[in-house]
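RECORD TYPE: protein structure
NAME: SET domain-containing protein
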Amino acid sequence: MNEADQARFSNLHQWAENHGANLHPSLEIYKDDITGYSLRVQPSANEGLAPGFCAVGCHVAITLSYINALIDSPINTSATNQEQDPAFPPRFMSSAPPHVIGRFFLIKEYLKGKDSYWWPYISTLPQPDHIDTWALPAVWPEDDIECLEETNAHVAVREIQINIKKEYKHARKVFKEEDFPCWQEYTQLLYKWAFCIFTSRSFRPSLILSQETQDYILTLTPPGTKIDDFSILQPLLDIANHNLTSKYQWNLETSGTCQLICNDSYQPGEQIYNNYGLKSNSELLLGYGFVLPTTDTLHNDYVHVKSRRPPCTLHTKDPQDFLISLRPFSHPSSVAGRSRVFSHQDVRLNSLPGLSRIEPGLIRDLASVVAISPDELIALQHWVQETEEMIPTEVNDLLERIQRTLGAKVQFDYQRFQSIEIESADNENQELAVRYRNQYEATLEATMDELSKALVPNHLEKLVKGEQ
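PREDICTED:
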């Protein structure tokens, strides 16, 4: 890092530790060529770190979220009564969702500059005027967004854009009508920046706050507020980057502090990682602005498919979408996919011809839609519960309908995908979009190939029997 960066992150480290945070003495903040600002074991360390070490801890006193907007100050869990005037007009506080209020609070503190309690943290964030350092696909220029057309990411981007526009328009209207001080300074650019910062760096409170801290925080919120109605920024801790296979856990036993415990070993000079969860490349692209490359030992390439069941038949907890995988769900490299294979019955569904790349939940979902009679569903359920390899006739007929429905869906999506021609990638956003497209395309092609190989023998057999 250059001297200016060294000074900023040194200031962050000192400020955080002064307020109860901690960084393992063998770790340091550095700038990686690929992942940017990161954490690593100091190259000069005498030895590596064994599994089970506390990499970094963040005290609730330095977190930034909707809760701080309610009290317009840091959280003090030892205070018997922390009721204060909120950061924004009551009308805004009562009409905007918690996650939106949290973003505007980040803007408010940014506008304070060095007068903000959180300035040591905010000064190390990607700054609003350097858009290329923080812009997620939802706020890319239109030419860059077009490179995502006919993919899962493009559909999601359009939905997010509508929400951002609506949220900002409402806030500006209230600020203006309430004559909120300096309301003109809360620009759309700053709201997009705050959206991207929270989206890419924040954490769910239920995961990183002890039950005692959660209970205290909820005493500050309006009635009916749920602990995960908003997310929380954790200074210092959020520098740790993502690795899909990293083993970690949260330690919430230290009063008011969330500690990242790394359960992998690291040698001097090696970057240490958090794990953001089993997210597909589509989710990583939208939420963090990167995708994982495909290797022989790990892939993260999945196409999201929405449930085909009528909305009126779906319950609140039913999955709304399912995954189609580049490689079979049973393949060791399908780490995120295998997390959705829960049982022996799921494994049996993936063993059906043509369906090894299809999430078991989607197979069940389609079966319920294309089944001609309840007997077919009963026969399928009976087969997946047994060990018999032979597929009964009624299950085979249902299977063929599932295969054909999937084949038609994937082929239709592939043809629409192929209709978009990207002549060249003119910037980093477009280069990222093209990498994502290439891996997305490979997933569709592999799935079509497997389904066609399963359908052709079945089709030929029926021709021989004179059934078609």
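COMMENT: The first strand starts at residue 22 and ends at 23.
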